[in-house]
Amino acid sequence: MSPSNISVIAIDGPSASGKGTVAQRVAETLGFHYLDSGALYRLLGLAAGKYGIALDEEVRLAELVGRIDIRFEGEDIWLDSIKVGDELRTEEAGAAASKVAALPLVRAALLDKQRDFCRAPGLVADGRDMASVVFPGAELKIFLTASAEVRAERRYKQLIGKGMGANIAALLQDIQARDERDMQRSVAPLQQAPGAILLDTTALNVEQAVSEVLLHYRAKK
Ligand code: DC
User: Fold this and answer.
1) What pLDDT is recorded for position 2?
2) Which residues are CB-contacts of 188 (< 8 A; sequence separation ≥ 6)?
3) From the CB of 14, is ligand 1 less than 6 Å away?
4) For position 181, what pLDDT does the model report?
5) Is any ligand 1 atom within 6 A of the Cβ of residue 10?
C-alpha cells in the first residue's frame, strides 16, 4: 500500500491511449516519480523468452519475477544488467505482456515491485489496475481512453517515428484483441475504477490531456 503522505496519481486505460506520454509529462511537471507498470509486464514477457519459459507457465513465471533484476533509469530500462531497447515496445512484446498479465500469481508477484516506486514527493503510475489494485488510496484516479481507431493511428505514428514497420489495419485488430483480453481476464481486468475520472482523449492532443489531469489534481489540493 502507498504511504498515505505521498501523493499518487493513478492513470489507467487501454493500450495506446496515450496514457504513458500523458503520465510522464504530468510527472515531469510536478517533479514526481513515474511508474510505467506495462513495462514490467513487457519485461517479464521478454525474460520468459530468454529463460525458455512458456507464457502460460504461471508458477514458473511468478517465480521468475523474484529472480530477475529490473532497473529504470530515466528513459532507460535494464533487465539483468542488459539495457533493453525498442524490442520492449513491439506489438509482439505487448501481446506477450498481455498474456503473462492475465496470470494471478504473476500479478501478485509484481505488486511489491510496483509499490516500491511510491517515493516522496509523489508518483504518477500508469497501467490498468493502478487505481483499483496497486494504489487504491491514490489521491487522483484517471481512466484515460480514446477510440480504438484513434489509438491505432497513434500507435502507427509512434512505430513509424521509431523507424519500425507498421500497418494500421493490423494495429487496429491487435488493439481490439488486446482490449478484449485485458477486459475479460478474471483478475484485475481493465475497467474504470470507482472514483476514477473518465478522460476521453479522442479529440484532445497531449498538451490538452496533460492540462486536464493537472487541473483535476490541483482541484484536489
Ligand atoms: O501499457 P502497455 O501496453 O505497455 O501494457 C502491456 C500489457 O500489460 C497490456 O496488454 C496489459 C498489461 N498490463 C496490465 O495488465 N496491468 C498493468 N498495470 C499494466 C499493463
Assistant:
1) 52
2) 107, 128, 129, 132, 133
3) no
4) 85
5) no
